[in-house]
Write a structure and sequence with these properties.
disordered C terminus, mainly alpha, 2 domains, Growth Hormone, Chain: A, about 425 residues
């Protein structure tokens, strides 16, 4: 590989990252944007509140049942066809939703949109992992994860205005256009990562020899369980922060919503910071567990201040909300690195499936606890979840240390000539065993 070719390859990985982030963000604009147009959804179909919730559930169920199959397909045939077909199908399903004449047809269309849109999760993560070396992967996947709340925030701002101008149909057409644009970008610019040299591929295969597939790997399930515990606090705070600020602290709805938007933006940025920090440390799990400890302490402090009735709880609740959003990229990266590059699609999809279950359950449980007891007890309860995550994730920290040691031994024993152009290109493009 010539110097010019290497330079082009170095630059092109950022194109892949941009396409992956676009695909993930476009689909998340649907998942997080629908609640913003729930009034139009309710009035268009004359729905009750439980029926509005059922529409959101249809989308979530579609995602849950297809995340792992799409991940398996990404590992088998590559990211480009999966994202292209999946996001095209999402756009088509949203066009069907826009033209639905009955609530049943709308539910079916939303379920289809979820089923197709889930393709962007594992495929985009796998693409980024393949193009970036381990020493930059946390930062790159942090950017990819940042696209999720960013896409949701953009949708929350733009969709209500579109719905006001052209009704629910125009808002759904805009979402379809975003997904179709991401599909076109994937078809044009998403390319497979350059293959590894035979000697390095053999070492990576040896490093993962005898390991079960991610769906039967206890480490993958443990990481998923820890992630579900961490997302409990995140989902509860994002879902109820505005209500807490309005009902308990007496803020007006406008400033309360602005506070939520600010925490979401700061939380998105914190994912990049956490990813970069993990790259410098050369490990994901120690930082992931430190964030879990911090979340538990912050939430316990919020619970105590709310019980005391002091306004000091407000800045601490905002800080806790930001902190609970900072870990996602680390866990997503760790999922791919535990199972290796060739099985990253299904590993990342499995982790997201378990996280989605936690996201679905947590707000309902938190709301029930608060309604039955108090806000202070609700915050105290969610503080327990990240504390448990610290314990659940502990064995994985030792596993990561052992994998890093094996990687270092492999690096030191590379064959003569391994520092030539072939070695340079794979080091740059994610060739380290993971």
């Amino acid at each position: 590989m010539s110097g010019e070719e290497r330079a082009h390859t170095l630059r092109y990985r950022w194109v892949v990252l941009a396409v992956g982030a676009l695909g993930a963000g476009a689909f998340n604009s649907l998942r997080m944007g629908l609640p913003a147009i729930s009034p139009e959804l309710r009035s268009t179909y004359a729905l009750s509140l439980p029926e509005v919730g059922l529409a959101f559930t249809a989308l979530s169920v579609g995602v849950l049942v297809t995340l792992v199959p799409w991940g398996l397909l990404s590992d088998r045939i590559g990211e480009r066809p999966v994202m292209t077909v999946g996001l095209t199908g999402t756009a088509a399903a949203l066009l069907l939703a826009a033209s639905a004449r009955s609530f049943g047809a709308l539910l079916a269309a939303f379920a289809l949109a979820g089923m197709f849109g889930a393709s962007a999760t594992g495929a985009s993560g796998r693409a980024v992992m393949g193009w970036f070396p381990r020493r930059e992967r946390g930062f790159a996947l942090g950017i990819r994860q940042m696209a999720l709340p960013l896409g949701g925030a953009i949708a929350a701002v733009t969709l209500p205005a579109l719905a006001h101008r052209g009704g629910l149909e125009l808002a759904l057409h805009a979402l379809a256009g975003a997904c179709a644009g991401a599909a076109v970008a994937a078809a044009i610019w998403l390319r497979p990562a350059p293959p590894l040299p035979a000697w390095q591929a053999a070492r990576i295969a040896a490093a993962h020899a005898g390991e079960p597939p991610p769906t039967r790997d206890p480490r993958a399930w443990r990481l998923g369980a820890g992630s579900a515990l961490l997302v409990t606090a995140q989902a509860a705070l994002i879902g109820f922060l505005v209500l807490y600020l309005v009902d308990v602290e007496g803020l007006a709805p406008g400033p309360a919503a602005a506070a939520l938007a600010a925490t979401q933006f700061a939380g998105a940025m914190s994912r990049i910071v956490a990813g970069r920090s993990s790259d410098r440390a050369g490990a994901r799990l120690p930082l992931l567990r430190r964030i879990a400890r911090r979340n538990a302490l912050l939430l316990a402090a919020v619970a105590a201040l709310v019980a005391l009735g002091t306004p000091l709880a407000i800045p601490l609740a905002l800080a806790a909300t930001v902190s609970t959003m900072s870990w996602n990229g680390l866990a997503f990266t760790a999922a791919g690195e535990i199972s290796g590059r060739d099985r990253a699609g299904v590993a990342m999809s499995l982790q997201n499936t378990i996280v989605a279950l936690g996201t679905t359950v947590a707000p309902a449980v938190f709301g029930l606890v608060v309604a039955s007891t108090s806000w202070a007890l609700g915050f105290a309860l969610v503080a327990v979840a990240p504390a448990l995550a610290v314990v659940v994730l502990a064995p994985l920290e030792g596993d990561e240390t052992a994998r890093n040691a094996r990687r270092e031994r492999a690096r030191r024993s590379r064959p003569p000539g391994g520092d030539g152009p072939e070695r340079l290109s794979t080091t740059t493009l994610g060739g380290s065993p993971a």
